[in-house]
Queue: 2 jobs
Job 1
Amino acid sequence: MCVIVFIAMSNRNSNGIPLTSDLGQANNLENQVLNASVPQGISFAQSAREEPVSNVNTSASLSINSNEITSLTLPIRAAFYYPWFPEAWNQQGIDPYTNYNPTLGFYDLSNPQVIKTQIDAMLYAHIEAGIASWWGQGTNTDNRMPALLSATIDNSFKWSIYYEPEGQGNPTDSTITSDLIYIQDHYGNDPGFLRIDNRFVVFVYADAADGCDMVDRWHAANTMNAYIVLKVFPSYLSCPNQPDGWHQYAPANAVDFQGQYSFTISPGFWKAGETTPRLVRDLSIWRQSIREMIDSGANFQLITTFNEWGEGTSVESADQWASSSGYGAYLDALHNDGLVNDTRLYLPVVKFGSNLSGDPVVLAAGDIASCGSPGDERTAALLTNLNGTVLTLGDNVYESGTLSEFNNCYNHTWGQFKNRTNPSVGNHEYKTSGATGYFSFFGSAAGDPQKGYYSYDIGTWHIIVINSNCSEIGGCDINSPQVTWLSADLTAHPTLCTLAYWHHPLFSSGLHGNDEAVKPIWQALYNAGVELVLNGHDHDYERFAPQDPNGVADAMNGIREFVVGTGGKDLRSIGGPITNSEVQNDSTWGVLGLTLHSSGYDWMFIPVVGETFTDSGSGICH
């Protein structure tokens, strides 16, 4: 017999407060953005909780129905579910313990009709499985499992278990094994229990201190060949023992994206007794989150939650969002897969024309990944459904650009697009001597490790990658090896349109300001008639009018510079705009998309979901 187990990791303190570990011409890009995935708000924030006390009979038993045992295939849409009512309506001196009014009233789950009504609601929302909170053998939630399974008599809906004891400490190998055997013997063979590849599925909550040692315990306890899907924690991909998958439980965030493993969405979070929500409900964001979840193609597409009324994360119908369908607006949105009138929802894009050009697209940002910031998950999810070459503008991973940081903090987000990425190196990479982590991770795509500069072509455009860490490569003065190479490269590629990118900007209104060290590079580019320069370093977005290397506006021959330090690391305040600065924003993660036409270009700043700032326009080549 095979078993699937999901293990959850907690990142809340004992008071339930979320913690964080340390996202003219026709335009080909626009059509992609209309179908793009743009998640928001990813972190390691979770919830501390305990099972409400009740008088539920503690002699759980199950009469297995005779329906055929079947497995579901991935991807699976599932919702976290709480079988602890009516006990949980009265907690911490608050009755009812919720800020909302469920349409079913303050129900009692000992009534099988309530459960059947809830299953019907979940099926309406295309939810294939409920993940029921389970606090151990003989507990109240354990004794509700037979009723849940009995309600799935037609085999159209499945139940799994959310193993909560891992969130209360570190169960021993023998305890875990005992619980898995118990779950297998009592529920795992029921046709209503969730299976994949004939292996039954269990999700497991955990505490904030858990890490690879928790993975090892579950690996050792898995004597029945369980399929284990763990809850993410910092550096989870570095553990020697890897499970079959990973998931997150972070209801204070609208979305959480863990690559192919899982995509989790939350409608809002307003805990009983708190004066303001931690995540404000917004149906437009909810609908967009649904589209992002579906477009992600993730194995487990999870809703947090169906009925956690105490934390205010429920999608079950309430008076506050009742609808004509009877299922409520949040389940209506899931039923419609996030669509309104059969069209994709609004994204802040600007139309450049009515016909698609088919010309190549590049997608650029710098200052990207950190295990302590959710931003790179958000921008990476945006890239998931955008075709085009990815240009990184330096400081690819924080804090020191070690190979371990690339593997643990960059690889599962922007690393998914490594095979279509042409990177540039930043100063944080050189906090590791020789930027060896950067060059090891990207390999030949990063160029000669002794140089870090290279060039290539995309369509009719010539693209130049500069290493602006001048002291590491023999300087950036006019006679330096890099500028000598650059001049020769420009001479050898007399194309109409050229773009260059690197980390440190010559012009910036941001915290770091202008970096004069790269002025000789700008001069060589200006002399050759280059159109565009893209930079990072300052954690903001800024667009400049075409200008010369001295900062004099030059509409005819000048270079247009973009600073796009919005890849995912924390954003920083931008100062007053300097000369020729046209647009500034210091509050929005996103990427710059460029459609490269044969004699011009279109640009568009594409923000993560929930943000409205954008910037767009067109230019012609010199």
Job 2
Amino acid sequence: MSSVGPTSGLASSGALLDIRGANFPPPDQLPLLCSVGGSTTAATWISPGALQCRVPPQASGADAAAPISLVLNGGAPSQVATFAYVQALPGSGPQFGGIAGLATGASWATLLGGAACAAAGVVLFMRRRPAGKPGALAEPPSLLDSHSTYGHGGGSAADSDGDAADGALAEGQAQLKCLRGAAFAAALALGGVVLTAGGISGVVLMRSAAGAIEDGSAPSMVELVAANPTALSLRFAAPPAPAPPMVSYELQMTTDQSVTYLAVYAGSEAAYDMQALLPSTAYGFRGRYVVNGLPTAWGATVSYSTLAATAPLAPAGLYPFATSVDSLSFAWDPAPPQGSAVTSYAVEQRESRLGKLQQAVRRYTMAPEARTHVAEGLTTDTLYSFTVTAVSAAGTGPPSVPFELSTNTADAAAPLVSTPPTVQSATPTTLTVLLGTSSSPSNNAAVLGNQLEALGDSGDYVLLYSGLEPVVVVQQLAASTTYEMRCRAINSIGAGDVSPIAPLLTADPSVPGQVSGLVQTAIYVDRALLRWSVPVSEGAPVLRYELQIGPEAAGVTLTAETNELLIPDLPPNAVTAVLVRAVNSVGASLPSLQRLVYTSNPAGQCTNPTDAETFNKGLPTFQDDLGACCAPCLGGQACFSNCFRDLHPYGAPCMECFAANCQCSGIQCLGQCIGGPSPGCDACVIEKCSGPFEECSGIPEAFEPGG
């Protein structure tokens, strides 16, 4: 099993889990069950690599984190993930990523201070008071608090929706507002959209039962870019403006009029190519966006058809491999089929007399797997022209480019001596060699290739290359070394005499290239683990690395045998500059660009040995896991902790620092981050939340995990 998703959703749930892996048995062989929080249902077998399970609603009094387990053939449950239930606002439900929470008209009337909101959606608008201004809210209300937190606007002006005008909101106030008709439908298709005007930021949070949009009722999100008989190039339509950053896309396909769907793509690219399809066949596709880790409703299914199969393309790569006085042998590369398999090849042969091709054509039909042809019964010392055409059930393709070849004369001989090979270019470890050419007497058979030999350690010449190419790259050589090489030409009679021996010299070794890719991969109170890329060092291996710690005049120099070093004895809660040089037998490289390494604050909650080790081990997936747990929880500390603890088991005091950071980003940076990661979101989190997190955890704000 490789992945399970999504791993969070509403307590009312009904979410569909996609379980990916390999070798899942069909239900008629071994029954598979899904268990979520102790509630067991049958798994839907999609393919050997995919299962689907429905998440039940959260049971009364049950934990917010429900284990997800697979049960095979009545055996013991095997936990594969954890599903975090997220609580909706009372009397409503978030419309965030297509998760529908329904409410009665009475609930909406209460929330909107008596204003009717039938057949419409609800948007939360908030205007923030600048930090430091007298009377500013110390902490804006969390989105997971009671709905009573959100009052009516308090202004006297009213807009066309009948509730308070956006501009009437005082700084620090919040308002629930109706968004009707096409505007709300477009917002739902986005699965959570930030609307900003005049300092007001609005987030689609809820929809009424009358305004709910089900899977398939939103416009299609999938467009056709190009088609051929066996492939369809698809892309996702640009989301309606204003569009939040899209984290990823999901695509499903159906071949049975939308009865069943098969997941075919999930990723961050908006374009996808469907390959290995059948010609003249209609396929149904539906897509959805995934925003901030939560999916929208599926768009309407749209049908696209592959093109009808056409004749194959022309074969290419015709080349000779044998000649005689009365026969010619050649080969070709297979012809690309265009939706219909090649059923045969047709070879046409023409004879050239007095420099002109004759009209008479001799034709041969070859099997579809054929890649060579031997033309026999030919005239001595005569030029022939050949073409190859591929045939399929869809038709006959175009012929190949004509290929000409002569039969041998009766007294044909091997090629004459070649000129010596020469060096086209040299490095300390490679030689690019231009092979010599052979003179061709009138009675010579056609040259079919060349050979390159070099004098070996045993005193015998070793074959390095035999083939058609006139230029050969010889690798894994020693620097500043002369290699004795010779070449010869080959035809159907045999190999010609070898050329004179040529001394070919590799270049001198050089100092290593500049060290790059410096990354701090672990942080401690008094140490830092630094890693870097191994530089190119042609002709002489890297012997060691020299690290300059601190200023060159006052710092210390350390030596590393490999491209990683745990730098000891650093001051706590400090920043230290490091330079790295690579050294080989020739000398030292240029110094790397300066890298700053950080140590943590011993007074922080996350710098004790256990939590520090947890933090460093989790660095490769830290940012992704942080986003995956924080975004769906909308700032809720308990929700975040339940999710993040499974991935990074910190102690309780340290976990509180991370949970508070998530809540801060969900509250202070709601407008910038609701659509997913973005430069604006990052800047807001750094400005509003990084300082308190550093003070709590002891991890420096400037330290980039894994960077």
